[in-house]
């Protein structure tokens, strides 16, 4: 009787290595196209966040943030379940690089095209949202909420923005990491909810989400009708700090670096080093046992 081949059971770290490898070996155009979708998905999630947090009034601060965070988790669900390419999870390809499955050049090229694709997807959604006039919802309070969120993101100092990026992507990558434990779609979606809800409710910084959120604030401050500000008893000048330069240098760069450090280094390489050391120890023990038997 011929035995059936046994499929090896991979631990989560080994699955993460294959996950990172799969992202790098996709064709550039496929990777770029899927990255555009991911940028759009995260933008849609932020629209959902603004919807559920606008007009919260005297509701408890923590509960408003929790509901907003759960709403935002839609974005990572769409990315993971629909197979899009998101920069903040693509940085887990550091494991494949550490294993020698890809080169540094391949990894960085993948990161670059996914990052640019995410930006394009976010800006496409920004154009659609502004054209739809969503900033006028709830008597303009939707737009005011967006302005306040965007402006707040520019008021971190450089180190604070980077550390908030570290904390954010630790949670994003841990959420993705947990999905390796299941092949069931509903289970994978549920596993993503709490890590995302925590990072959003805590005010941690996600570079790709910010590619939509801060430019949205800039667009509203620059292009909204004067009647929009008059109805809210505000002036356009109150949001004069919402500029592309401030966004790029005071938020996007430090947050992106923090995202890489949190996801690619702390979670990715951290787990890889632990598992690699454990594997080396097991190999030594196996060799010792083999030597004992042979003697």
TrEMBL record:
User: Which Pfam families is this protein grouped with?
Assistant: Form_Nir_trans
Q: Which residues cross the membrane?
A: 32-50, 70-95, 115-137, 157-177, 189-209, 252-274
Give UniProt keywords alphabetically. Answer: Membrane, Transmembrane, Transmembrane helix
Q: Does the keyword Transmembrane apply?
A: yes
Q: What is this protein called?
A: Formate transporter FocA
Q: Does the keyword Membrane apply?
A: yes
InterPro entries reported for this sequence: Aquaporin-like (IPR023271), For/NO2_transpt (IPR000292), For/NO2_transpt_CS (IPR024002), Formate_transptr_FocA (IPR023999)
Could you tell me which species this protein originates from?
Answer: Shewanella corallii
| Localization per Swiss-Prot or TrEMBL | Membrane
Give the main localization category: membrane
Q: Where is the signal peptide?
A: none
Spell out the PROSITE patterns in the cross-references. FORMATE_NITRITE_TP_1
Family according to the record: Belongs to the FNT transporter (TC 1.A.16) family.
Write down the membrane topology: Multi-pass membrane protein
């Amino acid at each position: 009787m011929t035995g059936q081949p046994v499929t090896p059971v991979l631990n989560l770290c080994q699955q993460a290595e294959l996950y990172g490898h799969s992202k790098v070996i996709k064709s550039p155009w496929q990777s770029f196209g899927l990255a555009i979708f991911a940028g759009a998905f995260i933008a849609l999630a932020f629209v959902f966040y603004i919807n559920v947090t606008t007009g919260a009034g005297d509701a408890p601060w923590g509960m408003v943030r929790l509901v907003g965070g759960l709403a935002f988790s839609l974005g990572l669900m769409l990315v993971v379940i629909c197979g899009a390419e998101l920069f903040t999870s693509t940085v887990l390809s550091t494991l494949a690089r550490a294993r020698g499955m890809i080169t540094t050049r391949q990894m960085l090229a993948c990161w670059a095209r996914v990052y640019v694709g995410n930006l394009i997807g976010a800006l496409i959604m920004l154009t659609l949202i502004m054209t739809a006039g969503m900033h006028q919802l709830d008597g303009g309070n939707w737009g005011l909420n967006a302005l306040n969120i965007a402006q707040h993101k520019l008021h971190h100092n450089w180190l604070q923005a980077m550390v908030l990026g570290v904390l954010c992507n630790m949670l994003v990558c841990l959420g993705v990491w947990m999905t390796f434990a299941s092949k069931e779609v509903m289970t994978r979606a549920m596993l993503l909810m709490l890590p995302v809800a925590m990072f959003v409710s805590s005010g941690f910084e996600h570079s790709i989400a910010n590619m939509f959120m801060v430019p949205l604030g800039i667009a509203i401050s620059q292009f909204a009708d004067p009647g929009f500000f008059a109805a809210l008893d505000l002036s356009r000048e109150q949001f004069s700090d919402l500029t592309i330069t401030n966004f790029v240098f005071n938020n996007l760069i430090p947050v992106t670096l923090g995202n890489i450090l949190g996801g690619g280094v702390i979670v990715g390489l951290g787990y890889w080093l632990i598992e690699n050391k454990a594997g080396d120890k097991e190999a030594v023990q196996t060799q010792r046992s083999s030597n004992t038997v042979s003697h």
